[in-house]
Here is the input.
Amino acid sequence: MTTRLLRPLMPAVLAACGLWLAVSPARAGLFDDDEARRAILDLRAKVSQNEQQIKQQADQIQSLQRSVLDLSNQTEQLREDLAKLRGQDEQLLRDLADLQRAMHDLKSGVNDRMRKLEPQQVNVDGKDFTVEADEKAAYDDAMNSLRGGDFDRAASALAGLLKRYPNTGYADSARYWLGNAQYGQRDYKGSLATFKAFLAAAPDHPRAAEAMLAVANCQAELKDTKGAKRTLEDLIKRYPKSEAAHAAKERLVALK
Here is the structure.
C-alpha cells in the first residue's frame, strides 16, 4: 500500500532531485569566482604596496644621490678653499719673512744711527779722549777738506769746531791744522797767531816742533827775518832730535 502511495510522488521527487543537482555546480562555481576575485584583489593590493615601497626606495635613493652629490660638491669646494688657504699661508709666510728682514734691517739701521749718536772714543796724535758724534763729524769733515786742498772750507770748519766745542779733545789738533789751513790761504798773520796759541796751550805736543817751524815760516813770509831766525834757533834748542830741528838748521843757512 505504501508503494502504491509513493508512486504518484516519484516524478515530483525525481524532478526536485534533478533541480538540486543542477543548482549545486552553479553555486560551487560562484564560490570559486569569489575566492579568485579576493585573491586577485589581495595580489593587486600587494603589488600596489610593493610599487609604493619601490617608489619610496627610489625616492630615497634619489635623495641619497642628491646628498652624495651635494657632499661631493662641498668636498670639492673645501678642497678649493683649502688650496686657497694654503696659498694664503704661503704668501703670509713670505710676507712675514719680508717683514722680519725689514725689521732686522730697520733695527740694524737704528742701532747704527744710535752708535753714531753715542759718544765715541778716539785717538788723535797719541791722545785718547771721548767726543760726541757731531763733534767727530765736524772734525772729520774739516780734515777731509784740508786733505782735498780746500783751505777755505777747512779753516772755516776748524774755527767753527773750536768755537762750538771750546773744551773739545780735538782742540790742540784743530789749532795746529787751522794754522796750516790759514797758511794755505796765505793768511800768514792769522796762521802765526794760531800756531803761537797752539804752542802756548800744548808745548809738549808731538807736533810742537813742527808748529815752531811753521811760526818761523810765517815770520819769514811777513819779512820778519830776525824773528824767524830766533824761532829757528829756539826750535833747535828745544827739540834738537826732531826732524823739524834738522829742517830749521837748513832754513837758518838759507836765511843767512
About this structure: The chain has two domains: 15-110, 122-255.
